[in-house]
Design goal:
Distance between the termini: 61 Å
Strand content: under 5%
Structural class: mainly alpha
Pfam families: DYW_deaminase, E_motif, PPR, PPR_2
Strand order of the largest sheet: 2-1-3-4-5-6
GO molecular function, one term: RNA binding
Radius of gyration: 27 Å
InterPro entries: DYW_dom, E_motif, PPR_At4g14850-like_plant, PPR_rpt, TPR-like_helical_dom_sf
Protein name: Pentatricopeptide repeat-containing protein At4g21065-like
Number of helices: 29
Largest sheet: 6 strands, mixed
Helix content: 55-70%
Number of strands: 6
Keywords: Repeat, Transit peptide
Shape: globular
Amino acid sequence: MVFPAEPHLEHPAPSRGRAAEQRCLALLRRVSSLSSLLQTLTFLLKSGLQSNPLVLTSFAVSLVLSSPAPHLLDTFLFNTLIRSLPPPLALRSFSLLLRRRLLPNRFTFPFLLKACASLPPGPTAQAHASALKFGFAADSFVENTLIHAYSASSSDLASARKVFDRTPQTSPVTWSAMIGACVRGGRSGDALALFRRMQERGVRPDDVAVISVLSACSDLGALELARWLRRYVERSRIPKSPALCNALIDALAKCGDAGAARAVFDEMPRRTVVSYTAVIDGLAMQGRGREAVGVFEGMVRAGVAPDDVAFIGVLTACSHSGLVEEGLRWFGVMRERFGMEPRMEHYGCVVDMLGRAGQVERAERFARAMPVEANAVVWRSLAAACRVHGRPDVGERIGRRLIAEEPARDSHYVMLSNVYAATRRWEEKGRVRRLMGRRGVRKEPGCSAVEIDGEVFEFAAGGGGGSGSEAEAEVYAMVEEMMREARREGYEAVEAEVLADVEEGDGEAGALRWHSEKIAVAFALLRSPRGAAVRVAKNLRVCADCHLAIKLVAKAYAREIVLRDRSRFHCFKDGICSCGDFW
DNA sequence: CTAGGGTTAG
């Protein structure tokens, strides 16, 4: 039985890889017993194959499987292959195991499912069926991996949940698998609900469970819970692994408590590049670009080598704070001093940096001159700059091209529609919205979360007149009142924004009367103690109309209102915003 | 040889 050749094996391996290949061959030829076969294989898979793992492992496998001593091949060996090979080869190893009429054991499926998790949905369901057939589906290791695999391979939360519901639910592993599944599927609110239930059931969260809940906090801006988790970690003496600290830093910073994030950072015995990056990103979100740059410099001084992600952090920090020349300098440093080749994300940061600062032409020139072809994200960020800086001509050109290239992407239509709205070209704007409707493309709904007494409430845009509950009516009445107060402070609707939202072909009630952040703020004003700061997290970027309204609401109600949107924090106080209207 | 988690441009 010869392991089928991979198409890319046809190509000669790079010379360093080729030498390794020769060594690998020589080793395998000397193999004569099962134990030495295993030893050699493990060695090859784990260490010797770094230079070109896929080619060399495929090579090793084909050699092993065409071995003149087939009796050496047992389940243990196949498990090793399934565990160590890249996912597609792991799957093939599993089918070879079956073809050889070997029986999978209880290690086989956890390994197999882990491989399935990073592949499209099909294999996960097949592996599940197979685990059922061989009687391993109720094994807790298999269940936990199944939950993970379903959610990771296809965001199939329903299947993950089905498995979860049939488990005994007594292990924190099972719960964090399900909590993680929710977060991955964009259901962080459900993740927090699960966390509550977990505690009600008396299952003690361990370090990994805490990490998975923290990522839900990051998502929803659940500051109180993030703080509670930090205290919980101290109290229950959960080991403060670097990963746990990094998750704490990330969550506290993304929830707006830069001080606490910094404190966790300072307490760490050894800070990794990830810890620094989490702090830098947090400062960037606050518009504290200078400090973010300072932290980056401190990292380099401390001898911690920046990686590509850290550079994304420092570049976005510069971009969001209008530090154009500073940012360009770091972009140069990345290559010249650290010898790193910028990726699309880095080029994207530069385009965004120039565009935000109003240098639309320079940004476009840069985007065209990039050595890699700019992707849709880059063009969209440039189009956004065109909208803000009054270059509808360029914005329109980009928008139309993006729609032609990727007709199923909602954000392209929204972008072009907004460009038209900004220049009051309602006719064209209407055409874009109708085109979107005809093609069945739906705009990602806006959603805002607010935490009251540790409980997170989520709001969608609405109020266009549906018959809701009494509580809902109360909130909408509060929005009306809030807007009256804002008007008294000088608010006037930003027409381009309001009209940008009108949905065609959605019925008359389709016009979303209030964006979710206005509703969330009203709810928080109703439910939180007088004078307390209001914190809202939104999944999209705040629009100019809400931005203006909330500034004045903060003044009228003498409240500090902290709104985190997709790109940064806005701290509204006394009628001004910490972003200085640059965002 | 078994499971869940861990920073990433707009």
